[in-house]
């Protein structure tokens, strides 16, 4: 079992809200300082425009720091996935997490299956796994059906129980449904709180162990420890009103969440 961080662990510090946003080189150094040797570069579209020399330079930085890399994107159209396969090969990343839908592209089940069937033999030849994430825009049942329909040994599921709540799916049910196909785990805790005036609820992140995530059920059901699956820390940290406070809390959550995972994965 490997504990990893994600670029989502530094979401606000990478954002335009930061006076000086972190670079990926900065994130690599922060990851090393936290004693972590895996970083998932997830939903960081700028890397798609990098030339090969820049990508290889990042790989050399990661090597010098002793950090392994995974990638994450959104979308399953063949041209897009081929770009990420090329990046994965340059970065020696064994896994690319993706989502079926994007903001402007929602393939039908048949289109999704055809797109993945076209490109997965190339991932198989390269030894790179595609992990499709659970989230509210597609039911976990439909996601399992898609993975089983394509039936590639390099196609699986990235389980994130928090995402599915917005689709009115219970996290425990989702975990149990997708467990046979899980190849990557996103770990973030979450909770509901009443909005001002008690009009509705907000679903937001909280530090691990303080919310509704049944961590033990998640890890035991997908057999993450025995299978050596990477557990990637993410956050749903709400904006705290100013950058300084938000960045400080983001770093505190990284410390607390790493401590939680280390204590619960002896």
TrEMBL record:
Q: Which residues cross the membrane?
A: none
**InterPro entries the UniProt entry points to:** IolE/XylAMocC-like (IPR050312), Xyl_isomerase-like_sf (IPR036237), Xyl_isomerase-like_TIM-brl (IPR013022)
Pfam families on file: AP_endonuc_2 (PF01261)
Domain named Xylose isomerase-like TIM barrel: which ranges?
A: 29-242
Keyword entries, A-Z = Carbohydrate metabolism, Isomerase
Instruction: Name the Gene Ontology molecular function terms of this record.
Output: isomerase activity
Q: Identify the Gene3D superfamilies for this entry.
A: Divalent-metal-dependent TIM barrel enzymes
Q: What is this protein called?
A: Sugar phosphate isomerase/epimerase
Lineage runs:
Bacteria, Bacillati, Actinomycetota, Actinomycetes, Micrococcales
């Amino acid at each position: 079992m490997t504990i990893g961080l994600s670029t989502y662990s530094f979401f606000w510090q990478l954002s335009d809200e930061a006076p000086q946003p972190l670079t990926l080189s900065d994130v690599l150094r922060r990851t090393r300082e936290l004693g972590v040797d895996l970083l998932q570069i997830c939903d960081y579209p700028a890397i798609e425009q990098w030339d090969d020399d820049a990508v290889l330079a990042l790989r050399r930085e990661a090597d010098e720091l002793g950090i392994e890399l995974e990638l994450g994107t959104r979308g399953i159209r063949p041209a897009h996935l081929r770009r990420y396969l090329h990046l994965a090969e340059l970065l020696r990343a064994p896994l690319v997490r993706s989502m079926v839908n994007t903001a402007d592209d929602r393939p039908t089940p048949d289109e999704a299956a055809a797109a993945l069937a076209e490109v997965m033999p190339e991932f198989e030849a390269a030894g790179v796994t595609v992990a499709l994430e659970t989230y509210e825009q597609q039911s976990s049942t439909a996601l399992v059906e898609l993975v089983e329909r394509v039936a590639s040994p390099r196609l699986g599921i990235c389980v994130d129980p928090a995402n599915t709540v917005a689709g009115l799916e219970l996290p425990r049910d989702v975990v149990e449904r997708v467990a046979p196909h899980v190849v990557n785990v996103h770990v973030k805790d979450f909770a509901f709180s009443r909005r001002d005036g008690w009009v509705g609820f907000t679903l937001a992140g909280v530090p691990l162990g303080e919310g509704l995530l049944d961590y033990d059920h998640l890890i035991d059901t997908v057999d993450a420890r025995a299978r050596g699956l990477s557990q990637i820390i993410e956050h749903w940290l709400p904006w705290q009103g100013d950058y300084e406070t938000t960045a400080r809390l983001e770093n505190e959550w990284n410390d607390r969440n790493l401590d939680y995972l280390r204590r619960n994965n002896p």
